[in-house]
Amino acid sequence: MDMTTAAQPTRATPDDSALLRATLRFDAWGTGLFGVFMLIGGGWLAEPLGLPVAWSVAFGIAMLGGAASLGLIAGYPQIPARLGGTVVAGNSVFCVALLVLAVADVLPLTAAGTAFLVLGAVIVAVFAVAEFRGLRRSLILRSR
């Protein structure tokens, strides 16, 4: 049997993860910029939103860490499915956490603060859905 005609294992190409990679990069940049905004603007946001400065700082730091993680994952030559799934799950959990904070009366939020957290949850949900679609697409392309 000629080895050149033998069935070769299917290899994923770098384009398999193109949609997921682009979404992760966009998410990383947006998350990072918003993290900086929360750190710099925490004092300014406290009164109109009712969001304590300590929470703004904590959110800002967490967002910078998340942005760095997203950027690292997006930089993989081929994004592992488990990391893509972790990002989707993490964004989903963060979305729910923002909604809970918005309605659970844990923070002294104003109406604008509640709207701010709900809007944040919607944005995170959009990223979760886009990343899920990118992950699903990359898995479909890899299986061909």
Based on the model shown, name its key terms.
76% helix; transmembrane helix; mainly alpha; membrane; elongated; 144 residues; transmembrane
Structure description:
- This protein is mostly helical and 144 residues long.
- It has one domain.
- 76% of the residues lie in helices and 0% in strands.
- The chain has 4 helices and no strands.
- It has helices at 18-49, 53-74, 81-103, 111-143.
- The longest helix has 33 residues, at 111-143.
- The model has no long low-confidence stretch (mean pLDDT 91).
- Keywords: Membrane, Transmembrane, Transmembrane helix.
- The chain crosses the membrane at residues 26-46, 52-76, 83-104, 110-132.
